[in-house]
Design goal:
- Helix 1 packs across helix 2.
- The longest helix has 16 residues, at about 110-125.
- The chain has 3 helices and 7 strands.
- It has a single domain (about 5-135), classed as 3-Layer(aba) Sandwich (Rossmann fold).
- It is an alpha/beta fold.
Amino acid sequence: MTQIFFYHNAADRIGATAALISRAYAQRKTLLVYAPEAEVAGALDRHLWMYPPGGFVPHVRGDSPLAGETPIVIADSIEAIPHSERLFNLAPHVPPGFLRFTSLIEVVGREEADRLAGRERVKFYRDRGYEIRYFDLTEKH
């Protein structure tokens, strides 16, 4: 059964996602980022070119001919990408085909619309018997 992880209260959802992706890459994990909204996909793509500072996180868009051999793929569709280890969901809805992935990572920001959509996804997963692990990204000063 797919393991589900919710990272919530992200002050910067794209930045938090990039940090999590960087950690996964350091662990040699392959992953797919489901980002059907062009603005979100573009923002993450740009962020990964700069994060971590002085580092490099190899990634491509889903329509790249290198998508099958690149560890991190940002795509607006899940079906055509062969990765099945980790799925990052940056859509406001449950990603189609998430069952084939070992792990599903949801990153939820602080905006009300994002929080409400996140709660709906939690309810969907919980109603189907998935165990959900939560991580609060609130900055502590």
